[in-house]
Every structure is written in C-alpha cells, then in structure tokens.
Amino acid sequence: MPIMGLDVGTAYCKAYGDTGRVVFPSMVLMRRKTVWNCIKRRPLTLVGEAAERALAEKGRLLRPVREGRVVHEDTYQTVVLEALYRLGLPPEQTRAVVGTLCRPTEEEMGKLEKMLKEKVKLGDVQVYPASLGALLTMGFDSGVVVDIGEGTTGYLAVEDREVVDFATTAIAADSVLDALHDLVLTELEADLKKEEIRMLITGSKKTISRYTATLGVKTVTSEKIKEMAQREAIFFAEELAEWMRTYLASAPTAALENPILTGGGSLIYREALTSLIPEVSFKVPEDVIYANAEGLFKLAKETFAAPTSLPQ
Q1: What is the DSSP string of 79-108?
Q2: Does residue 102 sit in the same domain as residue 20?
C-alpha cells in the first residue's frame, strides 16, 4: 500500500509520498454561482494555484488551517484530496502520517484521524506533531525544533523521539505580512491583498500592478517586497528571540545538541535570528519547505511497517 507524509499549513500544503512530492497553496476559492460562470461552465471550486490565480474574482476564499488548527473541515478535506490526486495515490489504499500542532490533545488527534478515515477515506492514518518531521528528516532522534510557519511558530523539544516540551506563539510569517500590507499602502501607494504580498515574497509572482490616482499604474516587484520583509522581520525577530530563549534555557541536554530552525517563515527570519541568538548554532534542513512532510513520510514507513515500535 502507498505511503504519504502530509503537512497542511496555513499557507501551503506539503505532501511527500512514494510517487514524489508536491507543494501548493493551502487555499480553496468558492466562486459565486453567477450566470456567467454557468454559461462558461467554469468550476465553482478552485484549489491551490487555481484559487491563487483567481484572487481578483468575487467569491469566498477559505484556508483550512489557522494557527495550527483545522478551522474548515470541508476545505481541509478538499486540500488533502488534492494532494493525493497530485501524487497519484488512491485514498482507500494510502496510509499516511499527518502533521498537526506541536502537542495536540487526544481529542484533537482522534477527531482529525476520524475525519481523514471517514471523509477522505484514507486506508490508515496516524497523527503526530508536524515539527517532528524536520527532526527525522535530519536523521536525529533528539533535538529542539523551532518551526516558523505562516500563522504560528512552534517549539518542540524531543528526547529519543518523545516530546518533552512544547510551545507556540503567534509571531510568525503572518506578523510580517500584516505589517507589510500597511507599509505597501503608505510607502508604495498600492493596495495589495495579503495573499498577493505572500505571492511576491515567495516568488510565485514577480510583479503585481495596481492603478493609483496619483501615480497611475504602480508596479510592485518581488525584490522590493522581499527587501521590505527583511527590514520588518528585525522588529518581530527580537520578540521571537526572547520567546525562544525562555524555552531553550530549560531544554534537555540531549535535545540541545541538535537545535533546528525550519519552516517557510524561517526564510524571512533566519538572518535576524542568527544575529540575535549567536550563541545557538542552528541546524537548517536542506529544504525547509518540505522538511516536515519528508520526515513524516519516513515516520509513516516505520509506523506502518512495524506498528509495535511506534515512537511515543
């Protein structure tokens, strides 16, 4: 039976399977059922890049995950099914390890597993902290993982694959994106949506143009937004660094041997954090975007091959 590691985040869905790996925007756009859409027979539900391209259309934009928790179950199921489709994996035959919060409750884990089995129809599923994947990707059983995502930053201290400490904070990539939204409006006089700013930062869009009353057509470039993001990140990084020090101070010795900095948001904060916490030599996965999903895939192979030796 095929195996998959899945990490559905606020901004992107990352999936790693026997057939390859995929990443796409974790969003669903529900188009309005207008006469024009019916005449043109346009799909009313758009997922991933298709939803991203249609941001200017009138409709309801949904993200299934917020601050590490599933907030729209139907949308979450749609995103998971899209990941399976892109990997070419039949749900009924697929066994998956799915990432979630740093330390989910038994109730949250049970609810997510039930939904994936009953609604998505996965063959089998286990739920683990997503950040554990980054640790396993780098070949460690013990370590501290600082996983900077879109909506939250997670801290996970692991000793022999057992979670011994955890924490989350709302200071993450979204903190910078929210600040940039106002800055772009005041400094560049361009009213960009938050999703569009995200696209410029990630490079999925090189330029976006807007008409302004004073400047005519104003073009905002990816390079300019990235420069502004690095500048803004410094202010939030100071608060994030203090938060990290609090937990690093009480981390087990074995875990401190492998401090890992990962997550898509680390691309924005890494430079500032390494200068603010020079005493910690962070190890960084080769691919911070896929690190969690790849590690969860490795865990899935172990889990379903030898269920008696599951990590706690």
Answers
A1: HHHHHHHHHT--GGG-EEEEEE-SS--HHH
A2: yes
Cα distance between residue 14 and residue 305, in whole Å: 23
pTM, to two decimals: 0.87
Do 214 and 127 share a domain, yes or no?
A: no
Burial class (CB in 10 A: 0-12, 13-18, 19+), 119: middle
Pairing outcome for strands 216-221 and 207-212: antiparallel
275 located within any domain: no
**CA 279, CA 136: separation in Å to the nearest integer?**
24
Q: What distance in Å separates the CA atoms of residue 226 and residue 239, rounded to the nearest whole number?
A: 21
- Rounded Cα–Cα distance for residues 99 and 292 (Å): 8
The number of domains in the chain is 2
With beta carbons less than 8 A apart as the criterion, state whether 36 and 311 touch.
no
pLDDT digits (tens, 9 = 90+) for 182-229: 898 888 888 888 888 988 888 778 999 887 777 788 889 999 999 999
